[in-house]
Each structure stands twice: as structure tokens, then as C-alpha cells.
Amino acid sequence: MNKVTTLNQFVIEKQAEVPEATGGFSCLLHHVGIAAKKVHREVNKAGLVDILGRAGTENVQGEDQQKLDVYANETFIAELKASGVCCGIASEENQDIVVFEEGMSRDGKYIFCMDPLDGSSNIDVNVSIGTIFSIYHRKSPIGEVAQIEDFLQAGCEQLAAGYVIYGSSTMLVYTTGNGVNGFTLDTSIGEFCLSHPNIRTPEDGTIYSINEGNYEKFPVGVKKYIKYCQETDKRTKRPYTSRYIGSLVADFHRNLLKGGIFIYPETNSHPTGKLRLLYECNPIAFIAEQAGGLATDGERRILDLQPETIHQRVPFYTGAKNMMLKVMEFLRFFEKV
Ligand code: AHM
Ligand code: MG
Predict the structure, then answer these.
(1) Of 102, 137, 276, 321, which has the fewest CB atoms closer than 10 Å, so is most exposed?
(2) pLDDT tens per residue across span 287-303
(3) Pairwise CA distance, residues 102 & 108, whole Å
(4) What is the location of CATH 3.40.190.80 in the chain?
(5) pTM higher than 0.85 for the full model?
(6) Which one of the ligands is nearest to 64 CA?
(7) Which residue's alpha carbon is at the smallest distance from atom 14 of ligand 1?
(8) Domain 7-196 class?
(9) Test site for ligand 1: of 57, 91, 118, 317, most ligand atoms within 8 A of the Cβ
């Protein structure tokens, strides 16, 4: 019989490699796994129980909140609180940070940033959606209430980052800075099982993912790069394939495994980009780099950016190393002309 490694086993084995580990971090990941399974369950029965559709409220970005967004947000917050090791959360769905002021959680040494349900415009049409998260050590003293400064840390300070994709299967992919591993939910036993150990992304991809409907609003360098992707050149396997789901997790996941680039640049309507630094770009950038890819805002490394606000947006370019180097070359060149 094939040996199956569950997420919990994997995390505990990794914990054993760190002599000073107290088990708190493993506990946190365990609760992330539980929340992901609960969201998986709701996503899968969504069509049956009328959970689809709008909740009738708006989130902090003024976008309609879908019922599943609300469910995912509440579920992750409850599980993280139950872990007893997390002192606060920054979520796409909450204007302010959520701090745990009572009990064990106040002493928790970890903080958590998340987009609980990314790609929410895809819920109604049965297309893949995801959860994105990242974990940091708090900066404020243990025992005090978490502060906003705990959350405004550069991405290079991340202890761990990951995403859950609710797709044809549900998968949890994460890194702690020592490679990237993917776990597929085996619904028959209710466990995430190691299915994609040590994920490496190809250096030369052939997929480009961008919302081309915004073409007119893109910087010149991006427009020229898109044309480059579409030209024929056998040596570089062009024309590349265009794939865009409109769900960052799903677009990134496909490109991670197959080799490609994802771009959400600054546009006239989103001059600083659309995606959020703390809970979309930083975690994805950490995973991209750990898998051998790159992630920048077109110029600077995402993980080096110092956040100023928790919902800050940033232009986002991520994917295969050589595709990234090429698009940045285009951006530099056409900035000058
Ligand atoms: P959301 O967090 O409100 O779902 O928005 C983020 C999503 C990403 O998943 C996706 O990459 C992007 O927005 C798609 O935006 P657009 O529809 O402008 O192409
Ligand atoms: Mg979202």
C-alpha cells in the first residue's frame, strides 16, 4: 500500500526538525486545515442550499459580499481564535484588524493575513475560487493586544504563506520558506494528503494570464509584452497560450504547475493595481519565489515592499523566472521611450 502523508503528519514531521518549536505553529496550520475543509464543504454544497448569491452587504472595498465570502471569513476567524496561538487577523472582508483580546489568544505569537474567499465573482458560476493566507510573528509584546504595526510587515518577514484552491479537487499549497508543498483533500477520509511534494515552477513558461479587456488602460510596456507573447517564434515556443480565469488563486496555481506569468498591472481605473499587498500579493509572491519563480510590482520585489495600510493595492507580476525577466525588460525599455 502506498504511504500517504497527511497535512498534519507532514507539519508535525517538519516541527520535529526545529528543536525549539513549541507546537504552536503546527497547531495554527492544523486549524487552517480545518477551516479550509469547512469552506470546501460549503463551496461544494453551495448550489444545493441556496448559499449562493449576495449577502446584501458591502465589504471595505465597496464590493458586494457574497454569502460564501462571509461564511469563509467567519470560519477562518473562528478557527484561528480556537487555535489559541493567533492574536489577530487582517482580512479582506474587515475594514480594521480583528484582534483577540481574551484568553489564550491574547498571548498568541502569530498574526494572520487572509483573503478568505478570493475570486468571489466566480462563485455563482461554479468556477474555482480560493483562500490566500500568510503568517507572521507579532511585533508587539506577547500578552498585549495586537497592534496595526504587527500587520504592516514586509512580505520577506512571512513565516509561512499558502492558498487553498476549491477546484475540481480542493488543494492546500503552502511554504514555510523551505520549498512549496501541495496537499489534495481526500474527501473519503477528510484529510489533506501530500500530492505535490517540493513544487518547482518551470523557468520558461508558455502561458500568459492577464485581463486583456483592460488592454487600452495598460502601461505601454505591458501592451508591447502582450504583443511579444502573441508573436510566432519557435525557439521561444511563441505564441504563448492565453489563459485567464479571473481568480488569482486558480490562475496562479495553473501557472505554477505548468509554467506561466500572471499580470495585474496598474491601469487608469486602478492606478496602484487592483490586488492587495498584504493578503493576495505577499503570500503568492512567497510561494512563487520558493518554487523558483519571481514576483514584482513590475520593478521592485514584492516581498521587499513596506506596507503602509492593511488594504494597500499594488501592481502584480508573478510567474516563471524568464518570463518575468522579459516583461520587466519591456517595462524598463518602454518607460524610457
Ligand atoms: P476579489 O478578492 O474581490 O475576489 O478580487 C480579486 C480577484 C482576483 O482573484 C483576480 O485575479 C482579479 O480579482 C480579477 O480581476 P478582474 O475581474 O478585474 O480581471
Ligand atoms: Mg476576495
Answers:
(1) 102
(2) 999 999 999 999 999 99
(3) 11
(4) 207-333
(5) yes
(6) 1
(7) 246
(8) alpha beta
(9) 118
Buried b (16+ CB within 10 A) or exposed e, 18-28: eeeeeeebbbb
- Residue range(s) occupied by CATH 3.30.540.10 in the chain: 7-196
Residues at CB less than 6 angstroms from ligand 1: 63, 92, 115, 118-120, 211, 246-248, 264, 274
Ligand 1 nearest atom to the CA of residue 275, by list position: 6
Which ligand sits nearest to residue 264's alpha carbon?
Answer: 1
Among the listed residues 114, 115, 116, 120, the one whose alpha carbon sits nearest the alpha carbon of residue 46: 120
Main-chain phi, psi angles of 80, to 5 degrees: -70, -35
Rounded to a whole number, what is the largest CA-CA distance in the chain? 62
The span from the CA of 120 to the CA of 62, in Å, is: 14
Q: Count CB-CB contacts under 10 A for residue 270.
A: 15
**Mutate-to-test residue for ligand 1 from 131, 247, 263, 313, highest number of ligand atoms within 8 A of CB:** 247
Question: Ligand 1: which atom is nearest the Cα of residue 270?
Answer: 18
State the Cα angle at 157 between 155 and 158, rounded to 5°: 75
Identify the CATH class of 207-333.
Answer: alpha beta
Q: Give the angle 28-23-307 at the CA atoms, nearest 5°.
A: 45
- Model confidence over 236-277: pLDDT tens digits? 999 999 999 999 999 999 999 999 999 999 998 889 999 999
Please list all protein residues whose beta carbon sits less than 5 angstroms from ligand 2, which is an ion. 92, 115, 118, 120
